[in-house]
Amino acid sequence: MKKNYFTFSLILILSLIIISGCTNSKDSIATISVNSDSEHVNTFKKLNLGELYDFDFKLNKADKTWVNVWIESYKDGKQEPQPLAELSYGKNPNKVVEGNLGFGIINTDDTRLGILYAPNVTATPQKIDKIHSVGVFSGWDYAIGEDKVELKLGETYLLGAYRESKGNSIRTYNLQDENEVKKMIKDDSVIFLLKIKIEEK
């Protein structure tokens, strides 16, 4: 009798865990994950256009929410008055919208262009100053991994950072640590922070 009771209890608990897991996934507002091997990224590489930082983005309540994506720009430790680029969209007729979201830098002979995109929408390319100094290091760091991250309403998330050093070296920072991000902004010459926030409207 005790054995049967234990077996029944175990099955019940496991069932509740499975149901709870499914419910949480289904009810989440949005999920995002790094997509470093996407078709977009590979096309950029093949055509030698520049650099592209791509994400898989899924918005589960697209008909009830508003998405804000932007690039904060910093030079010599000071934030620029306006974002380098920004997108604001929402209230889609479809309940679920998914696709690619990301930030890229297109290199041309004369200039560099920053591009920002999300599913079914793209911002106007913005001019970025070229690197003129010899020995300046640049790089991109993702703030999230390839595992899906669930996004919550009203919270701002840092997705990644593009950086240009002040000297001939560049160090790594923990982008999940706010103090580390502040130090990075202070230490490097140019910083672009890719951020996202979802609101209910």
Task: Give an overview of the whole structure.
- The chain has 201 residues and is of the alpha+beta class.
- It has one domain.
- The chain is 22% helix and 42% strand.
- It has three helices and 13 strands, in the order αβαβββββββββββαβ.
- Strands 1, 2, 6, 7, 8, 9 and 11 form a seven-stranded antiparallel beta sheet that branches. Strands 3, 4, 5, 10, 12 and 13 form a six-stranded antiparallel beta sheet that branches.
- A hairpin with a 2-residue loop joins strand 3 (65-75) and strand 4 (78-79).
- The longest helix is centred in the first third of the chain and has 26 residues, at 2-27.
- The radius of gyration is 21 Å and the shape is globular.
- The N and C termini lie far apart (55 Å).
Order of helices and strands: HEHEEEEEEEEEEEHE
Assembly state of the chains shown: single chain
- Radius of gyration over all CA atoms, rounded: 21 Å
Mean pLDDT: 84
Task: List unreliable stretches of 5+ residues.
Answer: 2-26
Strand content: 35-45%
Strand pairing plus helix content: what structural class?
A: alpha+beta
Helix percent band = 10-25%
- Mass-distribution shape: globular
Biggest sheet features: 7 strands, antiparallel
Instruction: Tally the helices.
Output: 3
* Secondary structure: number of strands: 13
Distance between the termini: 55 Å
Topology at a glance:
Layout: H1 2-27, E1 30-34, H2 39-46, E2 50-59, E3 65-75, E4 78-79, E5 85-90, E6 97-107, E7 112-118, E8 121-122, E9 126-128, E10 138-142, E11 149-151, E12 156-164, H3 178-187, E13 190-200
Antiparallel strand pairs: 1-2, 1-11, 2-6, 3-4, 3-5, 3-13, 6-7, 7-8, 7-9, 10-12, 12-13
Protein name: Lipoprotein
Signal peptide: 1-25
Organism: Peribacillus simplex
